[in-house]
Amino acid sequence: MLTENEIATKVLDLCFKIHRHYGPGLFESVYEEILCFELKKAGISFERQIGIPLIHETVRMEVGFRADLIVEEIVLFELKSIEACTNVHYKQVLTYLKLTDLKLGVMVNFNVSLLKNEIKRIVNKL
């Protein structure tokens, strides 16, 4: 079984490949579709746009949010195609991690010239 870091590296390699080919400017949903195609081709398991329930006190709310991708059941990926990510985006991913009890989240913003400048690892200290 791969570690969180190994999974993140494999998925980010695919993100770099996609960004080199298409560059910035596409909708987030297009990058997500292409990444899912590449993950499937590579034999990497993932769930896409999965509803994550939120439990408030004793009330279970069926969809607290939708995770863009959860890869190999242990790494959450949040994909963006925006001008720039801000602290609120990172805090959102940390909240997602807490709700899912996952340790590692990765935010990737494809709408930039240099992809490496808009990749952020977020760790849930559990």
Q: Can you give a write-up of this model?
A:
With 126 residues, the chain is of the alpha+beta class. Helix content is 37%, strand content 33%. It has helices at residues 4-22, 28-41, 87-100, and strands spanning 46-56, 59-71, 75-80, 104-109, 119-123. Strands 1-2-3-4-5 form a 5-stranded mixed sheet, sandwiched between helices. The relative contact order is 0.18. The model has no long low-confidence stretch (mean pLDDT 94). InterPro entries: GxxExxY (IPR026350). This is GxxExxY protein.
Reconstruct the topology from this structure.
Elements: H1 4-22, H2 28-41, E1 46-56, E2 59-71, E3 75-80, H3 87-100, E4 104-109, E5 119-123
Helix pairs in contact: 1-2
Protein name: GxxExxY protein
Pfam families: PDDEXK_3 (PF13366)
Mean pLDDT: 94
Secondary-structure class: alpha+beta
Order of helices and strands: HHEEEHEE
Amino-to-carboxy terminus distance: 21 Å
Global shape:
globular
The level-1 CATH class: Alpha Beta
Largest sheet descriptor: 5 strands, mixed
Q: Whole-number radius of gyration?
A: 14 Å
How many beta strands in the DSSP annotation? 5
According to CATH, the fold-level topology is Trna Endonuclease, Chain: A, domain 1
Fraction of helical residues: 25-40%
- Total domains: 1
Strand order of the largest sheet: 1-2-3-4-5
InterPro entries: GxxExxY
Protein name: GxxExxY protein
Organism: Niabella pedocola
Pfam families: PDDEXK_3
